[in-house]
Amino acid sequence: MSHMLLVILYKMLVDKYYVLDNGFRNTKGFLAPYKGLRYHLQDYRGSEREPQNPKELFNYRHSSLCNVIERTFGAWKNRFRVLKQGINHYDIDTQVKVVIACAVLHNYLREYQTTDEIFMVYEHENIVVDDIDQQMAQSNNVGSSSR
């Protein structure tokens, strides 16, 4: 591999962060919430329950980001069956390409089909993704789907 290619790869990997759950340590490049502090969004609902210090603010924003990620993957799994049925039998390079293709299609649909049922269901911050997934699965089995 040429030196220039190594430099490009290094620059692509530097300053990237992975959002982790509280089972991991908060280290360089890995963002886990602070343990022993409020974390879940409902813990911060109400004016007197706002974050009280920088660590709580970090946990609140971490929880908000995780909520967005969960809702996004919930919408993707509901729209693209390959993600729900599993892509584990594909090699890792194909799995990455499938996820990227789903992201591209999702963004395209988000741009040009703004009244989509799946978007309307998953765009609300207060939803519990597992509950919505069950409701959507039941409605898809009972009624006809427009997908």
Automatic annotation (TrEMBL):
Residues annotated as transmembrane: none
Taxonomic source organism: Solanum pinnatisectum (tansyleaf nightshade)
UniProt cross-references to PANTHER family, sorted A to Z: DDE TNP4 DOMAIN-CONTAINING PROTEIN (PTHR22930:SF251), PTHR22930
Location(s), subcellular: Nucleus
Record lineage: Eukaryota, Viridiplantae, Streptophyta, Embryophyta, Tracheophyta
Keywords, ordered alphabetically: Hydrolase, Metal-binding, Nuclease, Nucleus
Pfam families (UniProt xref): DDE_Tnp_4
DDE Tnp4 domain residues: 13-107
UniProt family annotation: Belongs to the HARBI1 family.
Protein name per UniProt: DDE Tnp4 domain-containing protein
Any one of the GO CC terms: nucleus
Entry-linked InterPro entries: HARBI1-like, HARBI1_dom
Annotated GO MF terms: hydrolase activity; metal ion binding; nuclease activity
Cofactor dependency: a divalent metal cation
